[in-house]
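It is worth pausing here to work through a concrete case rather than discussing structure prediction in the abstract. The textbook approach is simple: state the sequence, then state the predicted structure, then interpret. We follow exactly that order.
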Amino acid sequence: MKIVECVPNFSEGRRMDVVERILEAIRSVVGVKILDSSSDASHNRTVVTFVGEPQGVKEAAFRAAQMAAELIDMENHHGEHPRIGATDVIPLIPISGVTMDECVELARELGQEIGEKLSIPVFLYEEAAVKPKRKNLANVRRGEYEGLKEAIKEPERHPDFGPSQMHPTAGATAVGARPPLVAYNINLNTNDLEIAKAIAKTIRGSSGGFSSIKALGVLIEETNTAQVTINVCNFREVSLARVFETVMSEAERFGVTITGSEIVGLVPMEALLDAATFYLRLDGFQPDQVLEKRL
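Step two, the predicted structure:
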């Protein structure tokens, strides 16, 4: 079977009735299976992971974006995470029997459909990008929803599909194709946001850190704690253990410690095995030594 994974991020993490209606839109497509849904009130964001055959996944992503556009008003949205629209990003990931090129084509088809049928401006990013600067999602999101309302009118910020003006309530959407990534957050025992920002700057690729790491410093309102929120875009290049150790070392420079970390959504087993091998100092450990992998 050809299997594609889709991990759309929606700008709603507090009204669970709205989240449920978006999930129902995804479930309405036969053959598509939701693997995970994670909502965060502070980020005011929900990350959904679902899989299926390419065309089914594309249809489910479109229906979810359509539902989000009906239910989420970006004029009233506030949260810690950067965002440009009700459906902020829709990445497509090849899992089995599908090439990255096929996911790129699928992403472009989906982007065109959202732009034309929903009148939502769509920006192509990562492997699906047709403009080099848009390969990096941070460049697409620059200015976020509020800033993009004016910037989108500039020729260099025109979308790849849809109108060159923001949808009045749904904003804009980024659609792309990429390898699996790990959404990984590390919490600090401080409420000093500047410390989290400084650590994030140290580790992210755009600031001279790890090339496959994207990171921001945010303040979690519920707990009044600073957090380094991280996208590990290639865990084979930079392991979770290396990321954790680097953040811990940088935190010590500021006299703070790590209180805990979390993975948002799903994570490849290989990424966790790498961390286990590192911390347990296992020699010659092989993935097929995992009991569940043999069953």
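Step three, interpretation. Residues 244 and 294 are 29 Å apart (CA to CA). DSSP finds nine helices and eleven strands in the chain.
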